[in-house]
Design goal:
Helices cover 47% and strands 21% of the residues. It has 163 residues and is of the alpha/beta class.
Length: 163
């Protein structure tokens, strides 16, 4: 019997570490993986945006999530693993926990955020939220130094961090 595992995938590609681990872990614990991307609806709830702007942003977010999920799915396809991709809309942390709890997942595999510990505490992180709030067991994957450097480089290239 395959374990039902949820792997949240973020568009910043911070989730690469968790994705890699899930593929390696599959050799020990055969699993059926759901790669889940959550479109953060919080930004669309602010005032000042027209309905047309909100729709354009939502379409752009969905398109980006589909691209990222296709990229994340490729290693699972090459590893000949059972998987599916899925997009949900909502606040990422609570949505991940809700999907995991309501749909009977056995495990959530999530990577630590690419933020510094201070940024995680002050600004919060999806990974920290899932780790402490989810009622389903969570496997929290820490980045190696090389993976953390890669995450910081990717964020800097995307303009998410100062260079």
């Amino acid at each position: 019997m395959l374990s039902k595992v949820l792997v949240p995938v973020d568009t910043a590609r911070n989730s690469l570490t968790a994705e890699d681990y899930a593929i390696k872990f599959n050799w020990r614990l055969p699993m059926n993986v759901t790669l889940l991307s959550v479109l953060n609806s919080r930004g669309l709830e602010i005032g000042g945006l027209t309905i047309i702007d909100k729709e354009r942003i939502a379409v752009s977010q969905r398109r980006r999530a589909e691209e990222v999920l296709a990229e994340a799915a490729e290693p699972f396809r090459r590893a000949d693993m059972e998987f599916e991709t899925r997009i949900e809309i909502g606040a990422p942390g609570p949505t991940i926990c809700k999907v995991a709890e309501q749909e009977g997942y056995d495990l959530v595999i999530i990577a630590q955020s690419g933020l510094s510990e201070w940024d995680e505490i002050v600004g919060g992180s999806v990974a920290r939220y899932v780790l402490y709030k989810c009622k389903v067991p969570v496997l929290y994957i820490k980045h190696s130094k090389e993976q953390m450097d890669t995450q910081r480089r990717l964020r800097a290239e995307e303009g998410l961090l100062p260079r």
